[in-house]
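Escalation from tier 1.

The customer reports that the assembly of two entities below gives different structure tokens on two consecutive runs. Tier 1 could not reproduce it. I'm attaching the input and our single run for tier 2 to review.
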Amino acid sequence: MASDKKYWQSVEELTNSSFVETLSKNEFIEEILTDKFLGNKETLSNSSTSRRDFLKYVGFTTAAATLAACEGPVRKSIPYVVKPNDIIAGVADWYATSMADGYDFANILVKTREGRPIQIMPNKDANGTTSARVQAAILSLYDEKLRLKEPVKDGKNISWIEADKEIGAALKKLKDSNSPVVLLTGTMASPSTDKIIQEFIGQYPNVKHVIYDAVSESATTDAMMMMYGKRALPNYDLDKAKIIVSFGADFLGDFHGGFEKQYVAGRKPETGSMSYHVQFESNMSLTGANADKRIVTKPSDQIFALVNLFNAITDSNVASKATPVDAQVKQMASELKKAGSKGVVLTGINDKNAQLVALAINKALNSEIIDVNNTLNIRQGNDAAVNQFVNDLKAGKIRGLLTYNVNPLYSFTNSADFAEGLKKISLSVALSTENNETVDASNYVLPTSHFLESWGDTQFNEVTYGLMQPTIQPLFNTRQFQDTLLTWSGNSSKYYDYLKSFATDAILGEDSWNTALHNGFFNKENTSVAVSSEISIVDAAMQLSSSAKKSNGFELNLYTKINLGDGKQANNPWLQEFPDPITRASWDNYLTMSIVDAKELGFTNPVKDNGAIDGDYAKVSLNGKEIIVPVMIQPGQARGSVGLALGFGRTFGLKDEMQVGVNAYPLYKNSNNIQFGVTIEKVAGTHKFACTQVQKTIAGRHDILKVASLKEYKTVAPKDHHNGWNKPSYVSYDHKEVEANTIDLWDEHNRELGHHFNLSIDLTSCTGCGACIVACHAENNVPVVGKNEVRVGRDMHWLRIDRYYSSEVETREDAKELGLSRAKTYKALETEAENPEVTFQPMMCQHCNHAPCETVCPVAATTHGRQGQNQMTYNRCVGTRYCANNCPYRVRRFNWFNYSNNSEFDFNMNNEYGKMVLNPDVVVRSRGVMEKCSMCIQMTQATILKAKKEGRAVNTDEFETACSSACTTGALVFGDVNNKQDKVTALAKDKRAYTVLDYLQTKPNVVYQVKIKNKNEA
Amino acid sequence: MKSVALHSKRTLVFFKSFTIILFFAFSLSSFSQEVDEARQKEGRNLYKSLCASCHKLDKKLVGPALGNIETRRDREWLYKWIRNNAELRASGDRDAIAVYEEYNGAAMSAFPQLTDKNIDDILYYTTVGDPKPKVAEVTADAIPSGGTTSSAPSWLIYVLAAAIVVAFLMIASLLKQVNELKGNKAPEIKSEIKRDLKELWEGVKENTFLKITSIIFLLLLSAYIGFGTLFKVGVDQGYSPLQPIAFSHKIHSGDNKIDCQYCHSSAKHSKHSGIPSVNVCMNCHENIAEVAEGTVVEWDGVTYGKAELDKEIAKVYKAAGWDPEALEYTGNTKPIKWIRIHNLPDHVYFNHSQHVKVGGLECQNCHGPVEEMDEMYQFSPLTMGWCINCHRETKVDLKGTEYYDKIHQELAKKYNVEQVSVAQLGGLECGKCHY
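Tier 1 run:
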């Protein structure tokens, strides 16, 4: 039965169970390093400092410190000279704006305090969503290490006026001699900027605009261009889908992101129907982890399978090859045909032909899910144009280069070619927000403003016109890219005026500019309708199947991680410390490899006693390029394939701590995420991973998770004593088996008066994206501790997302129960471990009504509030850590060090700029105190105060926490269970609701909803 | 800074008494003039209510200075101008247009309601000015104006102090000589006391009970004193640092009855009460360049009179970048660096609006009689004990706000309770103030 399933967290745990025992024994042991201090007798006796001296020093310093402490410091308060009307010290202002940094695009709300932006939240009115990277972008604003501060010419500061004059003259000279100049930018998705660039090119006809995305989707946009005459990405209304078949498309992760909202909307068990999601993939992606059925398929087989599916659906007969997954493909073809227009096929294979085939299948299905009219404009890069540019540059045909927020020296496959070509150029100007390799190699460096300091407009899709407004004065001497281009075009108007008149004339019409700016967006009509053209898909399919040559080597599937994406925010400590949802490793990228391949090649991931993981290094070679990366054995990785994340290994200008991982762009040949013929060789050395995967053992408490199929959900009574998929725990009481929740050690308090907070977490809706983790960081001033501390299990995340693997057959006993033969048993054991099911479980303080931590605190520093929150009083805590030891959920975090103003932890809390992101309503904890999730008590208190001040009751669903407001899919719902109308009240009593480890009778205020998977059972 | 603030006030009080004597030493002859006090009063009242917001007697403000205006303008012209200057300008009167243009086209309101008598009274007032205070009524509280300063120059104080010390020494030595002459022998008295003390000590030494009792007593006493001292570490009750501007809450809040929240407007919105920005000061001080005659402020132990206080107002102008001569903003601003008096530790969350708006507390509840303070100081200890005490004692008014309606009904139903304290509503929970 589903709830009897065993869960495991790492390969090591599965194969070597004795280590778990060692680990659980060692979990709380902290070795005292006496040897380090006292080991060397000689130095000790030769020391000039005697014991007497030592005591003298101690005495003196204590006395001095005591005396110094008696005099309080003088604090100055400097009010404004003229206070802006809308700023009240201590009251947050919210601005609606947009984020567009070339990789991430989002309609957002920005919270500012005393003029400092401190948090990003989704602009839900504009259907905006945020990911971990969007949430963390607020910290990149304050990156004083990497951000450019002054205009520079050849290493020397220069004024804007001089720079304009000199560059203007140089541009004129190039124009007069009609020498080609290239303006290289990323995707901006900004209509007004496009117009400015056009006008600039009108002034300088020798300028050519080339759009370059480091992580390219050019194959898809090219396919769309061919089929629908539109260079854009198709949109998917996954909420209406009955069946979703994906070939390596990580649409919940980084496949031009942001489909999780619609995806989850189509997967609500309450409605009785859920979409059936089948994922053919090689790397274990976030999407595959969420799929109902994940079919391990290596990239070349994905291609053949896609062609086979095309053949089956369109009754064509394109030459292809048999694959191990043909049976499933056949089944999918009939399922898709059955679903008809409610079915959709996606592919993440970055090949124009593959995309064409997928588009053709959807067309053949007459799919309503794919939307080719309201397309996405967030990847406009054109590989052909970029290749042409690089060739021209190398050939010395280009005389001038203007770059804006791109870093080809880091992200080009052949960055050496680019570097060589750059030397032949007479004028190179880098307009950039942050310092990087390309900026360093340019003559002129013109700092541009961060998107939070800028005006702008955005058009991510065809119906939402977004506006961008500054939320802070520029921190440094920066100027917007648009203002610079306007100046060079000889247009004297400021970009703000330009934008306002552009938006009013072209978009808003009769509607008010101020209203649109206030809302941050404007819904316009879609004027761009796709015109389908008849092209031969058979040719494309043939080309596709011939492109996948069965080569001898490994197949490499390059991907981007949730935290760093294409590497733009590599200097952001929140993102670096963010654990990968699947591997749970932070501060690294690595080669993911299947269990079988690792065994063959001799790669291991030994787990140390303290829960840290080590890894071996592999030399990966492709076409003469070699890189050395550590190997992480990944359950669910397709045999014969390996995965490697882009975006890591940046070094230039980054803090030492952030220079982690390996740059995989040299292997990103032709911007294709799939590379064939890769050879892998084990090389010497041991890599130390910072992985939180197995640090917290669950000690056999497998019922922490509850998963059921949709059929079970519909047909079986949840609390059924035998088959129930959400049955309560039973304990022995008076020699009788009784439901655990009927007995209690403590008396109940009356909880009906006032508010009582609950947090509901729907495991079906949680995709594990981790936006909540970063939101919690920003809201609660959670410190970053660095790679070494994470490695030894001292991460400070108040909210973590546990990832559990499970499989139907795990032990021989299981196999016996299923009646498998001996040979089949071994086969089953092997394959199941190779393709486990994945379940994510957000875990934070459970705010137990009968909290084990509260009873053991010797100083009553952790106590229970009337409103259900387990309160942690830092100033009362003396750091015994009893509470953490007594917590069954492992959610308490101890401040081993001072993480602020400490050069040992040189992250955002150690510099004046980085500290500007801190939330002034939450204290920064100091060394020696315990901390944990507070259920955002500062936010609930603020909501209550707001209601009181306005003389009203708190509105329905008005209470929010940082995690619940950041959650895109609505998996996290927060509210007051004493308000009958609050969503959470019904959820807490839902038949899917359960509390974790209920037999401990801790009575948590965090309620989980059983995960329901659609097994496609009749 | 704290030590600066807490420097001995006693010595200064001492000097101050001399300053007052000094003022009497300057005998001020009051020159009298025949003034029709009734007309003067009538004119002054009208002037203050109608003219003073734009005109001063001796200085330009929004409009020209009006002192002795009759010497410059014809009375008939003034009648017309005051009643309806726009009409006068429209008639093409060259003087009227010139005045209008000189003041950048700032049109003066028309006062058609004023009778000739009214205008005569106003003009009389502009000629004779304010009634002069009578010397006989001069006290320490109302120091006469004129060229005198309210506090003597510092060198004078030191000379006087030195003189007093010398005088004391002389008197002491004189007394000693007189005693000696009388034949009293002081040393004998000393030895007697010494003998008594010695006997007492011997007695105590032999009595064990007394010994133990006194040791216990001493221990308890030192523990009590020690504990009390340690408990005061970090408690800054009475903290009154020297501020960059001699701002008197007494003048603003006490004498002029300005509401606290006029300046500290964020107290009802925010966790911070807010130190008013300089533009709030300028709302009034654009028109008030000097204090009233006879204003005195006790500042850091020194008495500030009109001359000093006017200099303090000038500091505000400097901060705001206001040119009091040209009556315009120069844009050259300089924020004021006030010294914060009420400091809570970082781990405490306190919200003013909760207490001011929701709780309906008067500012004085915690900040003391601010309207009587020339120099602001920390009135309450701001310790946790003090907070909790108030939360225990304060009853929450549950009626009238919708927020409490449900709670109120249930309380009344269940426990038959009509009123609860803040503590009973959860106001003592750690997490309510510490997060």
